[in-house]
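As described in the Methods, two query proteins were run sequentially through the folding procedure within a single session, without resetting any intermediate state between them. The first query and its resulting C-alpha cells are shown here.
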Amino acid sequence: MTNNVLKKQFAEKDIQRIRNLVKGNSKERITHGVGYTKATEDHIEGDTWEESGRTWTIKNGIKQNVTKLDGFKKVSVPMFCPSCKHVMDKQLDSFYYKSYGSCLNCRTEFETKHKIAGTWDDYVKDTYNKEIDLVIQEYKAFYKEKLEESNIGTVTESGEVETWIGSIDKQRAEDSLSEVIDYLENLKKK
C-alpha cells in the first residue's frame, strides 16, 4: 500500500461530469454534438404518409400506424360505449354496437325518446328510404361499370384467350335500368 498513485488520467469531460453530478446538475451537457437532424414534416388530421417503410395517419390527434387489421378495428367492439361511457358487458351490446354504434341501453333510450315524441314512424320510414336510395345508387354504379366493360377478350383458367363477338344493347340496358329504379322507388314508404 505504499504506492497509492492513480495510474490512469481522467479526461476533462469525465471530471466535468463528476462535478455536475456532485452539484446536482445531472442533466447538464458536457459535450456539444454536431450532426444531421432530419427535417420534420407537419401533418394534420387525416393525412396519410409513408415513413421508414410504414404507412402512418393521424386520427383523433394521434399518430397511428396503418395496418392490414384496420378493417378489423372498425368491426371489433370497444370496452366502453362511445355514447354513455359505460362498460359494454351485456350479451347483446356487441350486436347493437356493430349495428348502431352504441350499447343496448343507449339504443333503447334512443328508440324510447322517438316513440314518446311520436317521431318513431318517421324515423323508421326515413331509414328504410335511405337504404333504398343506397341500393339505387349502388345499382347505377354497377350499371355504369358494366357498360364501360370491354369485350375484347377474357383469359380462361387454362390460359386461353377467348374473344366475344357482339356488344351490349345500350338502349335495352337503359330501359332495364329505368324499370329497376322505378320498381325500387315504388318500394319506398310514403
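Immediately afterward, the second query was submitted; its sequence and C-alpha cells are:
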Amino acid sequence: MAKPSDVLSMLSLAAFLISGMPLTYANLIVNGSFENPVYSGTYEHLGPTELPGWSTFSSYSGTVLFTTAYNPVSDGNQAVQIEVPGDWISQDFATVVGAQYELTFDLMAYTGYGGPGLGYAPCPCITLLDVNVGPISTTVESTSAGYQTETLDFTAISPTTTLTFTNPPSPPGWGNYPELDNVSVVEVSAVPEPATLVLLIIAVGAAGLATKRTVVF
C-alpha cells in the first residue's frame, strides 16, 4: 500500500525526467539546405520547378544551385544564389494560427563579385535579402566574409504560411548576389514530444492507482 509520500516521490521523479528531456521540433521547410537535386559540378541555373520544395522566379537564367567548387556553403554540399534583383524563391508550409515559430537561415554574399573596372566596390561585398514570412517583412544584410545566421520570430496568422526570399534592387556600388543555405522553420510553442507526453500519462496513472490503494475502509 503506497503512502502519500511515495506518490509525491513518483510525481517528482516524473517531473525530473520530463524536464531533462530536450524538446525537439521538426523543420517545416522541405529541402532547406538545397541538397536536392544532387549536383556534382560547379553551379547550374534551375528553372521554376527544378528546386524541390520551392517555387522560384528568375528574369535571367534561373536560380543558381552551387557547390563548394563555386563558393562556400554553410550546411551540406550545396546552397543557392538568388542572382538577379527581383528574383525570388518561395515555399508554403502548414502552420497553426496563433502559434509561435522561428525562422533561421544562413546568408552570405558571393565572394567573387565586384572589383576594379566593374563599377562595383571590391570584395568583401555586401548583399541584401528581402524576407517575407507570415506577418513579417524585413531586409537583412550580410557580406562575402562568411555566412551569418539570421533569426526571425513570427506568429502564424493563417493555416498556411508563405516564406519568400527576394533579391532586392541593389544600392549603387554594392555587389548583391545573396547566397542562401540552411533554411529552417520550427514551432517554438512549448508542446512536448509524444514520448514525453506518454511518460507523463504513465506517471499520473501510476500516481492515481497508488492514491486509490492508500484509502482504507
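Residues 4-21+193-213 form one domain. We note this only descriptively and draw no conclusion about the first query from it.
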